[in-house]
Amino acid sequence: MPKGFPRFKLQEFPAALWKRVVAYLIDSLVLSVVVASPFQNFFMGMEKHGFSYYFTRFEVTGKITLVVFAIAALMLIYWAFMEFRFSQTIGKIIMKIHVHSLKGNLTLRQCIMRNITKISSILLLVDCIHIYTSKTHQRWLEKVSNTEVVEALQLPLQASLRKTREAISI
Amino acid sequence: MSRFGTIVWLLALLWLVSFAVSSLIGKEGIAGESIKVIPVTGAIGFAGINPLLMKYAQPDDIIEKLDKAGDDRNVKGVILEINCPGGAVVGSKEVADAVKKLKQKKPVVALIREVGTSGGYWIASAADKVIADPLSVTGSIGVAGSYLEFSGLMKKYDVAYEEISAGKYKEMGSPFRELTEEEKGLLMQKVNAIQDYFIEDVARNRGLKTDDVTKIATGEFFLGKEAKEIGLVDELGNMDTAFNVTKELAKAPDARLAREKQKRSLYDYLSEFSLRSSYLIGRGIGAELKAPVDGMLIRA
Fold first, then answer.
1. Residue B31 is nearest to which of A36, A37, A46, comparing CB atoms?
2. CA B173, CA B147: separation in Å to the nearest integer?
3. ipTM
4. Is the torsion defined by CA of B60, B63, B69, B70 positive or negative?
5. What values do phi and psi take at A155, rounded to 5?
6. Which end of chain B has the lower number of beta carbons within 10 A, N or C?
7. Which residue of A lies nearest to B22 if distances are taken between CA atoms?
8. DSSP code, position B44
9. Interacting residues of A113 by C-beta distance below 8 A, sequence separation 6+
10. From the candidates A39, A69, A83, A90, which should be mutated to test the interface with B, based on the most B CB atoms within 10 A?
11. Chain B residue with minimal CA distance to A42?
């Protein structure tokens, strides 16, 4: 390699799945402390009754709906705002991964769309099925919003070229 | 603003909104107001001891339930459902003290079902109100320290008992030798001291004069209706009565009755199986023995 030639290259690759999972868990922990903890008294004693108890009492159903909606909205604000402003949430900052738009700059609309399933674990689980069928390891809503979660790797130049060839051949 | 600053502000804002919404929906939890029923069933066990093979109303378990009910914001009042003939002294006292502590926070009503005597009544007396069925068995304010003494049986079979102990009264109460008069007097003193404490506590709990309680503290048990006449019971009734009284005292007319589901452990199932098996085996042996005996009687 001639002198002065760059030896390392910073390249972005789809983030490893385990990093994404850990980042999600970290964010969930942050949100449970910040957003869910003020409601702990409200949910105290919930295990004493079955579902039918709560949905046959109008005054309770109303409160549950309000609380669930409030928690979901605040969680979505966290995910969408953090990714729009910094391309990262706290979990992603710790795991050194970030969100990248496949079409120009990352917009707020894209951030909201890609995170909407995170308000519910079941919806997120369904959304994640697409990761295993997609070559780019994107969730379904990530594909729809044209975003992906990537990590930047500093590789020696030759390794970088090899990795790029591998990435192209996928 | 730096990234860190923005994140801190965002989290603070989210927490503030969350707190505001939780304040808006009010202090009452999703489970709603309730009147908790805490059963006191069986003889009161020894404080701090959990015997594996005997089923007792464990004082530590009852106290834990009382403390939990005290801490639960949704529980507005407690009904102690008592089916207890009495039992260990310290255990009964500890539960009564826990009831007195709880009634500082929220109303406690004692409901005596079949039996609430001796230690069981001690616990009931600590509540704000005592309710019993007219035919419930209650009272029996007294202390017993009786035990089986086998010295006669041992003498009959030439079995000797060698006493080797230091301390004049160390072997006092041993079932293998007779009690001396002095020792009997000493034990009676202890029993009377416990009785005096029992009487004072019941008198204090019920707002009665000590002398009046002493007159009825002969160990005699009373039916519910008799107990009401002498001031040991406030009202005659059943669970519905207790529920209504507790709701009134708690000022929670919409509270619902909350009973804990009795969790049965593997030990409960095994002991029930073992008891039934033993009973059936006994019956079988008895039936077999009876037949030859009948035959012999006929022949004779």
1. A46
2. 8
3. 0.79
4. negative
5. -115, 150
6. C
7. A39
8. B
9. A141, A144, A145
10. A39
11. B29
Strand duo A98-101 + A8-14: pairing: unpaired
Which token pair is B72? 């639960």
Nearest CA in chain B to A72: B18
Determine the Cα–Cα distance for residues B78 and B62; give it in Å rounded to an integer: 12
3 state DSSP class of B77:
strand
* Closest CA relative to residue A67, chosen from B9, B7, B29, B34: B29
Pairing of strands B137-139, B108-117: parallel
Minimum CA–CA partner of A34 in chain B: B15
Q: Nearest C-alpha of chain B: how many angstroms from A65?
A: 11
Cα distances (angstroms) measured from residue A121 to each of A50, A68, A124, A127, B300: 20, 13, 5, 10, 85
Taking alpha carbons only, the member of A117, A81, A96, A68 closest to residue A12 is A96
Q: 3-class secondary structure for chain A?
A: CCCCCCCEEEEEEECCHHHHHHHHHHHHHHHHHHHHHHHHHHHCCHHHCCHHHHHCCHHHHHHHHHHHHHHHHHHHHHHHHHHHHHCCCHHHHHHCCEEEECCCCCCHHHHHHHHHHHHCHHHHHHHHHHHHHCCCCCCHHHHHCCEEEEEEEEEEHHHHHHHHHHHHHC
Pull the structure tokens for residue B30.
């999703």
Q: Residue B131 corresponds to which tokens in the numbers above?
A: 């309710």
pLDDT in tens, chain B (300 residues): 788 999 999 999 999 999 888 888 765 666 678 899 999 999 998 766 655 555 678 899 999 999 999 988 889 999 999 999 999 999 999 999 999 999 999 999 999 999 999 999 999 999 999 999 999 999 999 998 888 889 999 999 999 988 898 998 898 888 998 889 999 999 999 999 999 999 999 999 999 999 999 999 999 999 999 999 999 999 999 999 999 999 999 999 888 888 876 666 677 778 778 888 888 888 888 887 765 555 544 443
Q: How many other CB atoms are there within 10 angstroms of residue B219's CB atom? A: 14
* C-alpha–C-alpha distance, residues B221 and B123, integer Å: 16
Cβ <8 Å between B10 and A78: yes
The whole-angstrom separation of Cα B265 and Cα B46 is 21
Cβ-nearest to B30 among A64, A70, A90: A64
What is the 8-class DSSP label of residue B157?
T
**Measured between alpha carbons, how far is B42 from B119 in angstroms, rounded to an integer?**
11
How far apart CA B98 and CA A71 sit, in angstroms, is 39
For residue B217 the two structure tokens come to 């503290």
B175: DSSP letter: T
User: How long, in residues, is chain A?
Assistant: 170
Cross-chain Cβ contact B18/A71 below 8 Å: yes
Answer whether A69 touches B (CB < 8 Å).
Answer: no
